[in-house]
Amino acid sequence: MSTNSANNNIKSKNIFAVDHRVDLEERWDGNGHKGGILWFTGLSGSGKTTLALELERQLIKHRYQAFVLDGDNIRGGLNRDLDFSPEGRSENIRRIAEVAALFSDAGQIAIAAFISPYEEDRQIARTLRPDLFHEVFINSDLAVCEQRDPKGLYKKARAGEIPEFTGISAPYEEPANPELVIDTAEDSVLESVYRLMDYVGSEFTLQGQVKEVA
Ligand SMILES: Nc1ncnc2c1ncn2[C@@H]1O[C@H](COP(=O)(O)OP(=O)(O)O)[C@@H](O)[C@H]1O
Ligand SMILES: [Mg+2]
Q1: So what's the pLDDT on residue 212?
Q2: Among 52, 115, 132, 171, which is most exposed with the fewest C-beta within 10 angstroms?
Q3: Domain containing residue 145: CATH number
Q4: Is 101 exposed, middle or buried (0-12, 13-18, 19+ CB in 10 A)?
Q5: Ligand 1: residues whose CB is within 6 Å?
Q6: What domain count does the chain have?
């Protein structure tokens, strides 16, 4: 298994990818469950961070190997050189997608919580590990997100203080065929987390094994 994801566009000519001596299945056996990528996409305020962090807590409690990659954390470190222009957003997602792919190579469940507004960028993320990629649409009307406004960003965006704000002055392309849709305008946080746990219980369980999830 090579972890060099994009074999095109490599600047250096002298790259020799190595194969690990541990199979992914061996890692999964060790963990007692499959790994993969849960890719949360949705508007700001739709509930990505809230649900990702609670899902992570529940999964760890049930002895799953899981880790959240969240927008603001990554933008403060790995991606601190990027802005919110279309190019900056695409590069942001490209790097996260590579990191999430590495986590899944390590046997973990990577929970990636990013607005990721462009369908094309999410498709690129999927292409890196197509069999392990689960797109989860965290769906909520713009009006509800704006009313929640947990970080006061919609207010600032409406006042013209934030250019290129998703849903207001920048586009959000809804997923065409997500593996799972969570309607956070309809369901409570608890109901939403249960649905996510159910999904993990059915999709990340090793054949012939039953793993308790709730
Ligand atoms: N079902 C739900 N799932 C997630 N968040 C919800 C839900 N219902 C209400 N909320 C509230 O919506 C807000 C979502 O904020 P946040 O998780 O930071 O969104 P995002 O990370 O998508 O920008 C929080 O204040 C949360 O308490
Ligand atoms: Mg968030």
Answers
A1: 62
A2: 171
A3: 3.40.50.300
A4: buried
A5: 42, 44-51, 113, 148, 150, 184, 187-189, 192
A6: 1
